[in-house]
Design brief:
single chain; about 280 residues; Oxidized Rhodanese, domain 1; 2 domains; five-stranded parallel sheet; three-stranded parallel sheet
């Protein structure tokens, strides 16, 4: 089978053919030091790793989204920009910005499959010349249906139509590694670490392999999937993999450690972690 939305993943060849497109905005999500050591010509360094939220109540969420909107504008994104995102591989950094742009209503957004590693292994050109863009006119038009707050997740905890997907490491899932006020997992969550979406070379697995993997973990097409992690990056990767590539399930993306960290909020008797995040591509 083919990907449900193959246009979301650009190949090295597709990007190479479009480098001269005046509407192209190429985002390098790797750390700044990696960018300075060489990047794809025309790329802007945009390291947002570590920027996350631990409170999805309206006032805090509104402020957080305004910050992200401003950062995207500052990188020269316009309403008609064709945004292509990459990091070392088809990784969680790229997926995180992909989700932000989808949530903000920007339709032309793609991830470079295989990332910078695939670009260099194909013998494509790199540069050390930095691109400093003029601020763009990007404006967010939030798609609230793509966002699940802590309350939204708690309301779905015991629904047979929802599959909670814990995309964190084994130690985080079992509670051996505690990175929030409490350790463990959301009751009923299925564990499938985000790295399993990728093949050994850092490309997304083919659609058949992804579908087989999610089916084996009881995440079928008739369920709404809610991936979560610690800060939204790993969950964003599964957000991209599930319906956009496999064509299964609507989904909500986890943003933070909110249920585990917010006083007075608890998913039943569990001492667990949850996130906030997005759902389906309209």
């Amino acid at each position: 089978m083919d990907y449900a939305n193959p246009e979301l993943l650009w190949t090295v060849e597709t990007l190479g053919r479009n480098l001269g497109d005046p509407h192209l905005v190429l985002m390098d999500l790797r750390p700044p030091e990696a960018y300075s050591n060489g990047h794809i010509p025309g790329a802007r360094s945009f390291d947002i790793f570590g920027i996350s939220l631990i409170d999805t109540r309206q006032q805090a969420l509104d402020g957080f989204l305004w910050i992200i909107e401003h950062l995207i504008q500052a990188k020269g994104v316009n309403v008609d920009s064709n945004v292509v995102i990459y990091d070392d591989v088809a990784g969680m950094r790229s997926a995180r910005l992909f989700w932000f742009l989808e949530f903000f209503g920007h339709r032309e957004v793609h991830v470079l499959n295989g990332g910078f590693n695939a670009w260099t292994q194909a013998g494509m050109p790199t540069t050390h010349e930095a691109t400093v863009p003029k601020p763009g006119n990007f404006k967010m038009k939030p798609r609230r249906e793509l966002l699940a707050t802590a309350e939204d997740v708690l309301a779905r905890l015991h629904s047979a139509d929802v599959a909670l997907v814990d995309t964190r490491s084994d130690d985080e899932y079992t509670g051996k590694l505690v990175r929030a006020a409490r350790g463990g997992r959301i009751p009923g969550a299925t564990h499938l670490e985000w790295t399993h979406n990728l093949d050994p070379n850092g490309f997304f697995k083919c659609a058949d392999d992804l579908k087989s993997m999610y089916d084996a973990h009881n995440i079928p097409p008739n369920k709404e999937a809610i991936p979560y992690c610690q800060g939204g990056y790993r969950a964003a990767h599964t957000y991209l993999a599930l319906p956009d590539l496999v064509g299964e399930a609507e989904r909500l993306l986890g943003l933070d450690i909110e249920v585990a960290s917010r006083p007075g909020v608890s998913p039943g008797r569990a001492q667990r972690t949850t996130m906030a995040g997005p759902r389906s591509r309209a």
